[in-house]
Structure prediction request, 120 residues.
Amino acid sequence: MQTYKDLIVWQKSIDFVLEVYKITSIFPPEEKFGLISQMRRCSVSIPSNIAEGYARKNKKENAQFVNISFGSATELETQILISKKLDFIPVSKYSLVDRLLDEVLRMLYRYRDSLYQSSS
Prediction:
C-alpha cells in the first residue's frame, strides 16, 4: 500500500461524505447551523482521521485515529436517524446513505481490529 488513499475504507468514506453533502443540501435552510453543519463535520471527520492515523506509521496510534473515525460515524448514524424522523431525508435517500454508512462502519471495525492484532 502506497498511501492512505489506497485504503478502500478511506475511498468509501469519501463517497459517503459526498452523499451526506447531497442529502443535507435538501434540508430546511434553518438547519444550516444545526444538523447540516454537524452532519457535514462528522462525515468529513471519518476520512480525515483515517488519513491522519495512517500517517502516524505506528499501528496503535493509527488504531486510535480509526477509533475516532468510528466514533464520528456512529455519531452521524444518530443524526441521520433524527433527520429521517424529522422527514428531512426521503426514504430512498435514507436507504442509500444508511447502507453506505453501514459499509463504512463494518470496514472501520475490521481495519481497527487488524491494526490491534498486528501491533500485539
